[in-house]
Amino acid sequence: MLLKGWVELDGKLFSEDELSQRIMDDPSILSRLGGEFYLEYETYRARDHYGIIPGDCPAGTIICDNQVKGKIDPQYADLSLADAIRTAVTLRSDTGVVALSGGVDSALIAALAKRPCLVVGMEGSHDIRQAQAVAAILNLPLHVRTITVPEIEDVIRVVARELEEPNPVDLAIGTTLYFVADTAHNLGHERILTGQGADEMFGGYARYLTTPSEELEELFLTDFESLQRQGRRDQRIAGLMGTYLSMPYLDIRVVCAALKIPSGEKVSDGVRKKPLREVALQYLPESYALYEKKAMQYGTGIWKEIKRIARQNGYHSSVSDFIIHIRRP
After folding, report:
1. Would you list the domain boundaries of the chain?
2. Starting at the edge strand that comes first in sequence, how are the strands of the sheet with 12-14 ordered?
């Protein structure tokens, strides 16, 4: 058997050997598997419900003898958002490191997982300062990776060639994730717990505050659908170092709990991700649960350096043109 990622059945984690035996006894359990995985077993191939782990078949699909035989669609009892998040993080907390930026998404995961943490950024960057403060409050070990300009100059060329749709945003996010994955690998971790999906599930972007209430539901749907492309980008970069991103907020339990919350309750009174912050208040001081953080490419200082490097190379007004330049062989 080939198993990438991890598997659970009805909330019980399975090793590769245990899973192999269970499938041998009853291949129909494939459709009930949870977790984040791609597996191959004899003539079977299967991939987790949302396709978190890359693999040679569509997301949530079971293939046998090169024909689609079924879907991965585990069913769980209804949970409150707090219980769903706690369960999702717990299932992912036996190994790995938390990518901690100091925002509510990653801080809540860190508080629940109680795993070692890492943060990357330029010297003195916002994310490093904030992550250090959160790690101190939670009494968790934190590895700080201070990024240098020469490192960024090297890495952006690698990342630019890996991008499916090269653009400035993907370059900045991909470069940041490269340093996260490289740091995790150097620390001996394969799994990286991240807060991906929280903005799309709970309304974390500024545009949610200005979108008319009657259009919010459609915006949430559009943003949720965009996660598949983002996931391909992020896992491709993480995979360069033999690591993968594990995403508790995209656990089926959490998604189901979030979908039951009206969009108008997720963003209200000028507060984004309100339900998530209410859960975070159970584990974090109010100042951290309610903290409004910058996106990773800004909080780390990496985007600022990418723009400066582009200007130094003669691209004063277009990072997009600079990307075309550095993608050339």
Report:
1. 2-71, 81-302
2. 12-14, 2-9, 33-41, 44-47, 61-64, 67-71
pTM listed for this prediction: 0.95
Pairing of strands 67-71, 2-9: unpaired
Please list the pLDDT of the chain residue by residue as tens digits (329 residues): 899 999 999 999 999 999 999 998 998 999 999 999 999 999 999 999 999 999 999 999 999 999 999 999 999 999 999 999 999 999 999 999 999 999 999 999 999 999 999 999 999 999 999 999 999 999 999 999 999 999 999 999 999 999 988 899 999 999 999 999 999 999 999 999 999 999 999 999 889 989 998 899 999 999 999 999 999 999 999 999 999 999 999 999 999 999 999 999 999 888 999 999 999 999 999 999 998 877 778 889 999 999 999 999 999 888 999 999 999 87
Residue 208 has a CB neighbour count (10 Å cut-off) of 19
Superfamily name and number for 81-302: HUPs (3.40.50.620)
Residue 179 is encoded by which pair of tokens? 């340093």
